Amino acid sequence: MRRIVSYLIMGIATICSYAEEPAGTAELIKYGDFNSWVTRQIHESKIIGGEQKTVYAIGPTRTIEGSDPYHNLGGSPWGSSNVLAKVAGVTKTSNAVYPDDHPGHGKCAKLTTEFEHCKVMGLVNMEVMVAGSIFLGEMVEPIKSTKNPYSKMIMGIPFTRRPKALQFDYKLEMPQNAERVYSSGFGKKKTYPGHDESEALIILQRRWEDADGNVYAKRVGTGRMRFSKSTDWVENYQVPVMYGDITKSPNFKEEMDLIPKDRSYYTRNSHGKLVPVIETGWDDADATPTHLFVMFSAGSGEAYVGTPGLTFWVDDVALVY
After folding, report:
1. Which contiguous run of DSSP H or E holds residue 116?
2. What string of DSSP letters covers 34-78?
3. Which domains are present in the chain?
4. pLDDT tens digits along 79-123
5. CA angle (131 as vertex; 128, 134 as ends), nearest 5
């Protein structure tokens, strides 16, 4: 009897010890507190009004004048949908990610869904739906066309660790009577029932390059969460990272699946050329990744579709080990 009681006590102690195990140590991603920003002052072309526009980038605090292409400064790993475009000699900007205040935490990133307006020669008024996003990687400026938006971005950074979760603070504002709107600037707007969702995504890949410069990857780790309800600040929210083939997991969702070839993210190969990263399958659950991709977006639909006014605030982005 004493032995049985002793075993029971030991078992209870083990269970309690497991239950009280800390969630892990959170390590902030560089510039992931969003307390410093690069402010770019860019004059758009006279044919579309010639206004001076402010475009923000996540990096060391400084101001840049002029329309030179931007490259990440200060070792910042963050790119965003804020961009300089030069199409047919016309300089245009787009900005849907802003610095904002997070009470008690300093600044944060504010991702908005809004119409980007463009009036050509004061006559033709174009509206393009833009959903702000930030990601680990870099935007390749200047943008010269609207075709295949992913091909203008370097997605992901070199990385070989295996985090347990992606952690961040967030706040969401969903407009009342929200709906989805498609507006590419050409043709009529289209309205769809229901509203868009904001999302957070973390992907770990093991990449390799063949002799022809093509880049392939197997999926090592996945975490993805979508948000659709207005809320005040939620602190230290975690998106767990699931490793290996997760298609049979009860937590698997369709949006967590492998990236379709026609929607592949891009990277620079060893020759400096932008090429798609083609996911070929799921890696072993204990595989070591070579690259990390993290993204936050005010929308989760296709290009030029969003819910006007949907706003997603993000702060203190960290990886948990």
Report:
1. strand 106-120
2. ---EEEEEEEPPGGGT--EEEEEEESSSEEEES-PPP---TT--E
3. 26-320 (2.60.120.890)
4. 999 999 988 888 999 999 999 999 999 999 999 998 776 665 454
5. 135
